[in-house]
Amino acid sequence: MDEEVLAGGNSSTIVRVGDTVHRPAGLWTPAVHQLLTTLRAAGVTEVPEPFGLDEQGREVLSYLPGIVGNYPMPSWIWSPTILHEAGSLLRRVHGADAPLAHRAATWQLPAHEPIEVVCLNDVAPYNMVFQDGHITGLIDVDMASPGPRIWDLAYLAYRLVPLGEYTDHDVPGEDARPGRLDALIRSYGYDFDQAAVLRTAADRMENLAIFTDQRAADTGRNDFIEHAALYRRDRARLLEMSASL
């Protein structure tokens, strides 16, 4: 069957073949497939079903139909419904994958202490699938690794409240963001204060900047250099926000 290159692959080529998605595999793929299998068995069917490897050694996953939240973000991404569904879905993911967090496995990214759950490490609209204004899927979970719950929640907040540097006119204004952050924390259903989430988001930015610097060095792509600089500006901003609470 013909291969259709899918939009949104930031660092690799991802293709659709019929009702499946084929993407590069790595040493971490068995752990990721175990994660997906565990989530689906627990009722978290918003993630793809893994089907092993194809003849080219690529991983094969079920295709999740819908619209992916790629940039520039549509205005409906910022709806309270999606904010609530994102926090609730992340809590369900963590509830289902916690038994895997302390098992021996090879992950693409290092673990972060304290280990509580398997973090997806990249929960954001660009890795979500939407239909009719609702979240129906989570994709691209190959960056997963063990870590604390707040590590994932803080990054989701960074992308969906949002907490970073945005210029789009549809993005919620500065005055709306504390309320949206509180709503996201409540939808996750765990007792985190805003300052802790903001500090963790700042740590995430530094971690992501270092990771992106390495990607720039490996690929020679100037856009990665620009992204790393943005993450460091946002880190400073997040620390200022947390200190003001």
From TrEMBL:
Pfam families: APH
Coiled coil residues, start to end: none
Keyword Transferase among record annotations: yes
Keywords: Transferase
Position of the signal peptide: none
Keyword Transferase: yes
Domain Aminoglycoside phosphotransferase: 108-163
Superkingdom field: Bacteria
Single GO MF annotation: transferase activity
SUPFAM superfamilies: Protein kinase-like (PK-like)
InterPro entries assigned to the protein according to its UniProt record, in alphabetical order: Aminoglycoside_PTrfase, Kinase-like_dom_sf
Name listed for the protein in its UniProt record: Aminoglycoside phosphotransferase family protein
